Amino acid sequence: MRLHRRFARAARVSTAVVLLLATGRIAAAQSSRDRVSVVPSSLMELRRWDAQTERMLRNRDLRMRDRHEDKLLEGRTIERADQYYKGVRVFGADVARQLQGGVLLSVFGTLYPNVSVDTVAKIDADRAREIVQAQSGAELGPARQPELVVLPRDDGGYALTWRLSAATDSDIRQYFVDAHDGAIVFDYSELERQAAVGRAQGVLGDTKKISVSGSSGHFIAQDQLRPPSIRTLDMKGSLSRTLQILNGFPIVASDFATDDDNNWTDGTIDDAHVYQGWTYDYYFKRFGRRGLDNHDIEITGLANPVRRTDLQTSSNVVIGTFFLNAFYAGDGYMVYGVGLPAGFFTRSPIGNQTWDFLSGALDIVAHELSHGVTQFTSSLIYLNESGALNEAFSDIMGTSAEFFFQPTGNGSMQADYLIGEDVVRPGGIRSMSNPAAYGDPDHYSKRFLGTADNGGVHTNSAIASQAFYLAIEGGTNATSGLSVQGVGAANREQIEKVFYRGFTELMPANATFSVARAVTIQAARDLYGAGGNVERAVTEAWTAVGVN
Q: In the chain, how many domains are there?
């Protein structure tokens, strides 16, 4: 989640600061002329793609990334395969297949049939690391190693590149270094914008149980009651140490959040740790999913990355990234911003807003962890429409976690269709029921078409989020005037499972909104039968928001 606003001291007329967006060159992976979207619309097309993908698998042009038994439908198998060219993975090219008894039931994906590029690298991985370090100014630890990939380009051509990410005080960027001449041919922001049992006080003053571990007379924020290691680090306001950890340097004992008497009182640490566990529980209890990667990968939250007292001496980009932001940093790492000190606020379409510690909102923590689920499933590329779908899935799952654990209502720590409303007050940062109130589109015809924010990933996410809302609650889309008969709040779980299945099992990495419509309709048929109320609600919802 990326939050960009102006802030001002209350009682001052104008101390607005413009926060910078790291936009990069919106390019390549989504716009090559040779790209083929795999969205069969008939049995004949499905059979054709069945034969084509089987042939590519035999030829090793497709290589299996993941194969697992479906958690929601017994007897179904889900496969994900990446496209390769002469042994090198093609970035953004993959297919997701659903089978039963070896028979293909659905396939969705993106393929590049006419790749042509010299796959012999002239510069090695170490040199590529040096180039990225020099470009980003980041020092990369030994865990950060580049991957050789074929990058589809805007002009329809292809480049052999080393792919590597680097974290700085303003961004986490994915770099593509030409493996022939060392030039950086493409880059974009990846900043996706949360045993013993103790007592914890949350950001909002509530008390809750916290699962920690005991060591040498004190307690460590490391959950040992759930299958994965869920740990929370206290960065103690050190941005430099935060960046070291994000860039792959080892975590040491002094990084862990600790408490002497197991009565935890730092709300930003406490909520980050507790809500990370709750999000794990939501995914397991609702979908049978074992953590972000479905194999209980370690989950690490970084709290207190900066000090609130340093606000007025911090750069605009640091404010935008580590104060007014929470983000998923990849491989199970989350960073939770500290908000604003008393007396400061931001201006938004709904008025002036104060900012509490970001980890104090369950939907924000679940939102960030859901980016991790996306990383290990569809891996939706964080650009343009696929990036907006990436953000929409996180909003959808963050909101769903709220409804799973909290009572429905409009008050503090109650479940609703606002995003981040518990800590960004009043009103939060987005609305699924009324996107326009926050300046976001509720219809595909109104989507943002510029390059800022990686092609409007946060703004345009509201289109898919509105479809999710309408499929549950029903209602009329304000732009199209089309009405939707939702399944009703009592059947919320049906739509949650449809969108979860569609986005994690059937969705390709380079998906468009049209593909998202197709995969969620397919998921509705898979789970609840063709022509039923659930398929009707999902279909009507996408049509109402202008996605066909």
A: 4
